[in-house]
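tool_call: predict_structure(chain=1)
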Amino acid sequence: MQTFEFNQPKSIADAVAALAAANGDGRFIAGGQTLLPSMRLGLASPAQLVDLDRVDELKGIRVDGQSVTIGAMTRHAEVAASADVKRLVPALAHLAEMIGDRQVRNRGTIGGSVANNDPAACYPSAVLALDATIKTDRRTIAAKDFFKGLYETALADGELLVSITFTAPEKSAYYKFRQQASHFPLVGVFVAKTANGARVAVTGAGPVVFRVKALEDALDRSWAPASCDGITVDASDLNSDMHGSAEYRAHLIPILTKRAVAEAA
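tool_result:
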């Protein structure tokens, strides 16, 4: 691994300033579950790392009525164990509980996962399905505007993800068909019944998380597992790899949606 400077600020302002001082050759590091392996493989080589672990402003879970705000540096294990998350959005706690293995859950963070936007990450499906709000050091971004493409988000250079706010849905569930070695979803589906209608968000199947309107329309007509029967998903823009073809992933989406709706009930 190449040499680099390591900065440990204690506030959001100091973290943003430290990255700006790197003149485009620095990276924020949260849990390090993606960045450090990338550096070991030579896929990333920042001259400076700005560690966010000591920034207490980025940690914790807060409730305001029917909304729960999760700080960007909150670990997966903390989300999974939170009584507030289990009460308001139990599917989100269940999702966090299934991420990776114990080491990943105790080091990885929700903010790091969402900001990285891996095409097979679990959290983006919950963020999109629940119409979550992403707060940064500069602005607030709606979930529908945040995920742009493969590892691409609406975050500008040097912009820091601070927290994510979820509003409790009427019902929700997350179901994933996992790739056994990595525990990433080959396909993962987060369903939610909200005040604004049904939401079906899919991760793992394409280059970026996406919603499936045909399934949402069917569930709006009747929120029941059988509503997913007969719905087909276009495979033309889906991923194909050694673990599964695009057609196989397309086939899995309505099946996993049906199972998630049954679980939500």
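agent: Residues 246-264 form the longest helix (19 residues). Proceeding to next step.
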